[in-house]
């Protein structure tokens, strides 16, 4: 895992189909963003910043900002606009819209050792810029009727992960075929085996 951490790779997932949904996945099965080191690994792994970007200036306030945005996005993705202010939907929407105003980190193209052009940031990114990029993704997701209609919640037991179903026929059932899908197939096999023994 990036930054020399002892974090197991499966703890950070990037398979929800959108960066804002990948951020939601950092709560399952337990809090994943429990240190600035893990948060920085998530920032790099999500593609918000290129590998090698200096994030040593990240501090615990970044955790607060990322967790708060994650909670607000979760309210919006799982809620319905007609719920009204009593359910917090409008407050969550106002927060995401406010965060989305921040300019995202400025990229630039530079040559690597082999002469190929690679993406680099113009300077160390600030927390507000990174949060702004995620909030803009959430705004795009929530305002695109096709994308919004493709939002699904995993059918796996006790799995709250939300993902974008881009499969042919829109029949994807699990956040991950390798994780929840495999668990379901194993459980189904065990049920059949138990029935055949009786």
Automatic annotation (TrEMBL):
Residues of the Zinc finger CGNR domain: 151-192
Listed Pfam families: ABATE (PF07336), zf-CGNR (PF11706)
Source organism superkingdom: Bacteria
Protein name as annotated: Zinc finger CGNR domain-containing protein
């Amino acid at each position: 895992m990036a930054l020399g951490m002892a974090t197991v790779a499966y703890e950070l997932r990037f398979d929800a189909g959108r960066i804002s949904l990948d951020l939601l996945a950092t709560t399952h099965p337990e809090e994943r963003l429990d240190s600035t080191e893990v948060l920085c690994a998530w920032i790099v792994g999500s593609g918000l910043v290129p590998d090698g970007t200096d994030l040593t200036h990240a501090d615990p306030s970044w955790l607060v900002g990322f967790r708060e945005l994650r909670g607000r996005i979760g309210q919006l993705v799982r809620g319905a606009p007609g719920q009204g202010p009593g359910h917090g939907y409008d407050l969550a929407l106002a927060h995401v819209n406010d965060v989305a105003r921040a300019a995202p980190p400025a990229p630039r193209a530079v040559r690597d050792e082999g002469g190929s052009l690679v993406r680099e940031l113009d300077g160390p990114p600030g927390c507000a810029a990174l949060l702004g990029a995620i909030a803009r993704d959430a705004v795009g997701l929530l305002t695109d009727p096709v994308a919004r209609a493709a939002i699904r919640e995993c059918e796996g037991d006790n799995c709250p992960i939300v993902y974008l179903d881009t499969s042919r026929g829109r029949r994807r059932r699990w956040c991950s075929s390798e994780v929840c899908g495999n668990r379901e197939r194993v459980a189904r096999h065990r049920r059949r085996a138990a029935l055949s023994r009786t």
